[in-house]
Specification:
The complex is a heterodimer of chains A (521) and B (519).
Chain A: H1 9-27, E1 31-49, E2 52-70, E3 76-83, H2 92-120, E4 140-143, H3 156-173, E5 177-195, E6 200-217, E7 222-231, H4 236-239, E8 242-243, E9 248-249, H5 252-267, E10 270-271, E11 278-283, H6 285-297, H7 302-305, E12 338-340, E13 362-366, E14 369-370, H8 377-383, E15 391-392, E16 401-402, E17 406-409, H9 416-421, E18 425-437, E19 443-455, E20 458-464, E21 467-471, H10 472-477, E22 481-482, E23 487-496, E24 501-509, E25 512-519
Parallel strand pairs in A: 4-6, 10-20, 11-18, 17-24
Antiparallel strand pairs in A: 1-2, 1-5, 2-3, 5-6, 6-7, 8-9, 11-25, 12-13, 12-17, 13-14, 15-16, 18-19, 19-20, 19-21, 21-25, 22-25, 23-24
Helix pairs in contact in A: 1-2, 3-5
Chain B: H1 4-19, E1 24-44, E2 51-69, E3 78-85, H2 90-103, H3 136-155, H4 158-161, E4 175-192, E5 199-214, E6 219-227, H5 236-247, E7 257-263, H6 265-276, H7 282-286, E8 307-310, E9 331-336, E10 339-340, H8 347-355, H9 359-363, E11 379-380, E12 395-396, E13 400-402, H10 410-417, E14 420-423, E15 425-430, E16 439-446, E17 449-452, E18 455-459, E19 465-470, H11 471-476, E20 478-481, E21 486-488, E22 496-499, E23 502-511
Parallel strand pairs in B: 7-14, 13-22
Antiparallel strand pairs in B: 1-2, 1-4, 2-3, 4-5, 5-6, 7-23, 8-9, 8-13, 9-10, 11-12, 14-17, 15-16, 16-19, 17-18, 19-23, 20-23, 21-22
Helix pairs in contact in B: 1-2, 3-5
The chains are: A alpha+beta (521), B alpha+beta (519).
Chain lengths: 521, 519
């Protein structure tokens, strides 16, 4: 019978993996660098629809990923990923050694082909460089998970019963609710990172997430809304909620019922009428979380800015090339500051990224001036910058990418009620829904859960199926009020990479006021 | 990759083990071995780069068990699923079954596991075995083949040469080659109490989706290649993308307004993938989320519009012999002459729909009287960007999507439109007010031209127009579909759309991002 896989496997294999990586890189003539990531998780999940059980499960995850930089005359990368199981545990050293061999062979073959292309294409071949990683402080460290209720101790039946009850309550809320889907999971994840430079980092985190999707039918209209709750804590996130300085989450029951009430109310509303001209818009923190995600967080990922994503998620209007870019230029009003910070508490929290770089805050906008990008060691080296620890994979078998962490607009000093009260005629845009962003993030269209009319400083009629559309720079330059009600929200489904990686992070901000066109019918 | 014979043996032994369990009413054993080999490409003439950025792979194998547990005392009949990675022995099956037992739930909408189909399997031995045996150096070579193909086009282009003082300065134009070569290797075996004979399937594909740019000139082009045979893979996608990027140099802006449009192949694919196909599944009708609610048998599109899925079409890249439920693949007509006639389905959703008391209201017809419209030919366990995974339960996934048309050529399509726009590539095409509302948007990002007097004229500047439309208007406004469909890929899509060009009477476009001209 195979061994059981638990997160305790990580400390048990830690020294052996460290020794393997160190000796492997010394044993291969053309190996310049190697790193190995190993990840083990233990979790529970349950799903219910329309008050009926649909699925529950309890399982482990076990995966590894390898990067080798190598080559005879020029350096290139090679990678290998494996999803493994309990049967592999006794032989994990052998699995990793096989993976290192594949990654090394790929790196060396890649370097050979790169050298060939450099000589074959005079001029165009000059861009094919000798890859390097920007230096970082090499650390050995262990970080622990934070939780009140250990996900491993929660009976699976309790997870299933809870989501069923939430689903039943949502279903019974109103005859207009025609479909609902509720899910919840809770788990512990443990990650090991070792490199041939001597890094040896063991990080554990607890992650719990709930999801609610509701479809409601009104007399003349319908509405479908979904939203997520989540935090890096234990099962208490789901059953008790979270009450912290910037994170205020009700338990999944209240979270779902509130979303269901909104869905029912919206199904009875008129759709918003689109405008051809800009109007005054006040946007709430939840809506701004997605604005920040899409038009600050994504275009400030340096791999995207350096064109790595041209064929997939697009480029960034902040950078044409190494010399010609928006760094130090005005991209918003004095009131707009935005940052990414993995070190603060949130769904995107960590202390080291997936190449062992100590995480730190980076300001993307500082009082409206473009400050910089989230980066990796490879992209930092290209730009001549210091790495800031944003190279992350959603699964150890996948190659990391530059990702958002806790990425948000910074708070201002205004009372959000005053921001609304000052508006003679405008719209209050509440809750993010679905985005569609231009290729270099220079324009966005994001729908909202609810849009209210503002008349003479008072909130009026609510509309469904509305949102905003604007050119990005104009929108940020027009920001004339920023609230003091900063909040962070869990965003669990950010897609990037090939194959697509879906990452958890936090996004947020305070209430803000700007100008944009309304979208609707 | 685990040999097919070992997968077959594992299923046979696993099923025997399952049958020996007293509490199991019926069960199914699914074993799979998958490899996704991928070379991500990133060449940028103006920024230091690797050319082939990520030669990589992810491999896994294991067993998944689905079991129905008998009612016992206070316990009601329950259904559960569990899996075990890297162990297809009886011990692995035992572990997967234990997980299924622990997590089993009483789902009132579950009736039985899959039952034999009336249709027969038609596709056997259709893959190229050499694709299942690719070495590390072959993967790297496939990536460089595509990069080199694009660079050769750039280096020998007279148009590009005219834009710089001397050939060594070509790199200053900001030439980009981005995308990937993806190699899928899939093997699976399945058997169950109701279908005890072990069925196996083996499939492979090589695909490449490339974007090239002449960034200083703001031009962008795309190239595609998808094949099931190793010797069929060339540098074509790289060459095609580079040529398309060069061809769209000198793009112009257009003002906001309503335009007659020919959607090119990628744009057609993107609209199908994100807006149309998600609304054409039994699961989405059950969840009251389709833009076509209550319209089975009714006109939902122009009579010129037809779409079907065919997972058993010989030679097509998305074809499979059987589904991941062990059922034969085949053709499902979805919209014929503009009428909604069928939906994609798997076994669970077909059963659920047949028993749903609100099904008639949701569909617009009684499902029991229209059973042929909901045959479960699309129950696949696709996940993680490719592969038929043992640790996933079957979802509903398209295979090969075909949109037959009658218009002979791009020239004829443009003549149909007269004056308008050829939109070759769009991006971030999402149903912004939820799928059911049908409202969607997306931006025009490349491969696009003005159509004047029925002919392609100046290229359109990428990233300057946003589509603001409703899918019902677009489908009802189809005035022509081209005859030839080509395999077309969209980032993160499982299916292959053999996309034609599609002419539409009226599409609203908004001008965007004018400040970009001043940066």
């Amino acid at each position: 019978m195979p061994q059981r896989v638990s997160i305790d496997a990580i400390p048990q294999m830690r020294d052996a993996v460290f020794d393997l990586v160190a000796s492997y890189s010394r044993s291969k003539r053309h190996c310049r660098y190697a790193d190995v990531r190993v990840e083990v998780s233990e979790g529970k999940v349950a799903v219910a629809e329309n008050g009926m059980d649909k699925f529950s499960g309890e399982d482990y995850g076990f995966a590894f990923g390898i990067r080798v930089l190598g080559g005879e005359n020029v350096v290139s990368p090679g990678y290998f990923g494996g999803i493994v199981g309990a049967a592999d545990l006794p032989e994990i050293g052998e699995r990793l050694k096989e993976g290192l061999d594949h990654a090394y062979e790929r790196a060396v073959a890649n370097a050979r082909s790169k050298e060939g292309a450099r000589s074959r294409f005079s001029g165009l071949g000059d861009a094919l460089y000798d890859m390097s990683l920007a230096p970082v402080e090499v650390r050995q460290d262990t970080t622990d998970a934070r939780y009140e209720i250990d996900p491993r101790t929660v009976p699976l039946e309790e997870v299933g019963k809870y989501v069923r009850e939430v689903s039943q309550r949502v279903q019974g809320l109103d005859s207009g609710v025609v479909f609902n889907y509720i899910s919840a999971y809770t788990m512990l994840e443990r990650h090991l990172f070792v490199s041939s430079e001597g890094a040896n980092i063991d990080q554990t985190r607890a992650v719990s997430q709930g999801m609610c999707f509701v479809v409601a039918q009104g007399k003349d209209g319908h509405q479908e809304l979904y939203d997520y709750s989540g935090h890096q804590r234990g099962w208490e996130v789901i059953t008790r909620g979270v009450e912290q300085e910037f994170i205020h989450l009700p338990h999944l029951m209240d979270f779902s019922l509130e979303l269901a009430r909104d869905t029912v109310a919206l199904a009875a509303c008129k759709p918003l009428k689109a405008t051809d001209d800009e109007v005054v818009v006040v946007t709430d923190p939840h809506y701004n979380a997605l604005v920040c995600h899409e038009v600050v967080g994504h275009p400030t990922e340096l791999d995207r800015a350096l064109k790595f994503e041209t064929g997939y998620a697009g480029r960034s209007w902040f950078l044409r090339d190494v010399k010609e870019n928006q760094i130090g230029k005005r991209v918003g009003s004095d009131l707009v500051t935005a940052f990414s910070d993995p070190t603060i508490d949130g769904f995107g929290h960590y202390m080291y990224d997936d190449e062992g770089t100590p995480a730190r805050r980076v300001y993307h906008f500082d009082k409206g001036i473009f400050g910089g990008f989230s980066n990796s060691r490879q992209t930092a080296a290209i730009m001549g910058l210091e790495p800031n620890g944003h190279y992350k994979a959603t699964d150890a078998s996948l190659v990391p990418l530059i990702r958002m962490s806790n990425t948000a607009f910074a708070p201002g000093d205004r009372d959000p009620h005053d921001i609304i009260r000052e508006v003679e005629k405008g719209y209050y845009v509440v809750g993010h829904r679905i985005p569609s962003i231009a290729e270099s993030r220079e324009n966005f269209r994001i729908t909202a859960m609810k849009v209210y009319e503002i008349k003479n400083g008072e909130i009026g009629e609510m509309f469904r199926d509305g949102g905003l559309m604007s050119d990005t720079r104009d929108y940020f330059l027009n920001v004339d009020a920023v609230g003091n009600d900063f909040r962070l929200f869990a965003i669990p489904n950010c897609g990037k990479g090939q194959p697509m990686q879906t990452k958890r992070m936090s996004n947020g901000g305070p209430t803000m006021r700007s100008r944009a066109r309304l979208t609707g019918v | 990759m685990i040999p097919l014979s070992e997968l077959e043996k594992a299923v046979r032994e696993g099923l025997a083990y399952l049958k020996a369990q007293e509490d199991v009413e019926e069960g199914e054993v699914y074993v799979a071995s998958n490899g996704v080999l991928l070379a991500r490409l990133n060449y940028t003439s103006h920024i230091p780069c690797n050319g082939v950025e990520e030669p990589k792979s992810v491999e896994n194998y294991g067993v998944g068990v689905q079991a129905v547990f008998k009612a016992d005392g206070e316990k009601v009949r329950r259904i559960g699923f569990g899996s075990e990675t890297s162990d297809i022995s009886v011990e692995g099956v035992r572990s997967a079954l234990e997980k299924a037992r622990r997590g089993a739930v009483a789902d009132p909408e579950f009736y039985t596991l899959v039952r034999p189909a009336a249709e027969q399997r038609t596709l056997n031995s259709y893959h190229d075995p050499r694709v299942l045996d690719i070495r590390d150096a072959d993967l790297v070579d496939a990536g460089w083949r595509v990069v080199n193909g694009a660079l050769r086009v750039f280096q020998t282009s007279e148009s590009l040469g005219n834009l710089v003082e001397r050939p060594e300065k070509l790199g200053e134009l900001g030439l980009i080659v981005s995308g990937d070569v993806t190699i899928l290797q899939e093997r699976m075996a399945i058997a169950s109490y109701a279908m005890p004979e072990v069925q196996t399937d083996e499939s492979a594909a090589i695909m490449s989706f490339i974007t090239s740019m002449v960034e200083r000139e703001g031009s962008k082009g795309s190239g595609y290649e998808a094949t099931t045979r190793l010797d069929g893979f060339t540098d074509g996608a790289g060459r095609e993308a580079a040529q398309a990027a060069i061809a769209t140099i000198g793009g112009v802006r257009l003002p906001s307004g309503d335009y007659r449009v020919v959607f090119g192949r990628q744009a057609t694919m993107e609209i199908m993938h994100y807006i149309v196909l998600p609304g054409l599944s039994t699961g989405m009708f059950y969840a009251v989320g389709s833009p076509f609610m209550g319209q089975m048998g009714q006109q939902v599109a122009s009579t010129k519009f037809n779409i079907h899925d065919d997972g058993a079409a010989p030679g097509l890249v998305g074809s499979k012999g059987i589904t991941c439920e062990g059922l034969p693949t085949g053709r499902t007509d979805l919209i014929v002459d503009g009428k909604l006639v069928g939906l994609l389905s798997n076994h669970y959703e077909t059963q659920r729909l047949m028993s749903d008391p609100k099904a008639k209201e949701k569909l617009g017809v009684d499902p029991k009287e229209n059973a042929s419209a909901f045959v479960p030919r699309n129950g696949f366990r696709f996940a993680r960007g490719g592969g038929r995974h043992f640790d996933a339960q079957p979802g509903i996934h398209p295979t090969n999507i075909l949109l037959p048309g009658e218009v002979e050529s791009t020239e004829s399509m443009c003549r149909l439109v007269g004056d308008g726009i050829y939109i070759g590539r769009i991006w971030y095409t999402y149903p912004v007010n939820g799928l059911r509302a049908g409202d969607f948007t997306g931006t025009v990002v490349g491969d696009s031209y003005i159509i004047r007097d029925g002919k392609l004229a100046e290229p359109l500047k990428p990233n300057t127009l946003r589509i603001t439309e409703n899918i019902r208007n677009v489908l009802n406004g189809v005035i022509g579909v081209s005859k030839e469909g080509k395999p077309t890929l969209v980032w993160a899509a499982d299916e292959i759309v053999y996309a034609p060009e599609m002419a539409v009477e009226k599409v609203h476009l908004d001008s965007i991002g004018e400040y970009m001209e001043t940066l």
